[in-house]
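Annex B. Sample input.
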Amino acid sequence: MNFEKVRFDLTDGIARIVFADAANHNAVNLQVTQELAHAARLCEAAPDLRAVLMTAEGSEFSVGGDLREFMAERDRIQSHVREMTVNFHAAILTLNRLRAPLVVAVNGVAAGGGFSLVCMADLAIAKRSAKFNFAYTRSGLTPDGGATFFLPRLVGVQRAFDLLATNPTLSADEALSLGIVARVVDDAAFDVEVEKLLAQLAAAPAGAVGRLKQLLRASLSNSLEQQFELEGRGIAEQAGHPATLGMLEAFFKRSQK
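Annex B, continued. Sample output.
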């Protein structure tokens, strides 16, 4: 598949998925969902993936569903939208189950499905000027992209209902205070901070950050006993990893000086 609406690059273990339709506000249409699902599959197939970045060109991250395309397909709108969600959700499922962490870098407005993508991040970082609005119900639609799954786990069910039903526009700092994004940085420092974060995650000891992601995802449905079992097996396996043993040896050498 050729990428036209999305740019994809995989270099030195870091995959970059970039919405590249700034002229159309990086709106999510059928082609975008197809390309996004393809990019996610390429990430899944990468043998030494260390981190994934999702961001966008231009001044907007994504305004969500391409309503103009919806209306152009009004005679078959139900099947058209369903096809979009199949691709969109396949991409999110694939990215969610990757061992590598997903960083979503919000460079501007994130609305509708664009906001849903922010909620599914392992770590979201936003420009201070970024804005967030779900906008689904305002258009007579209901959420997709996992918004009704991820958002209640971030902010609680009652606050999630408020955000999805009444569509307030959140500033980046408000999104930070709610736990929707993990970091907010000044616009001028955004690109540098995103690259620093990616480099830090990619340089983490082999398997440790990926296993951390899996533990956190599993905790959403596991009992405490099940989580203890995963944690116990995980830390034991990591302790025996050659890279971990090397780091422990280096630590003790430094401490003895």
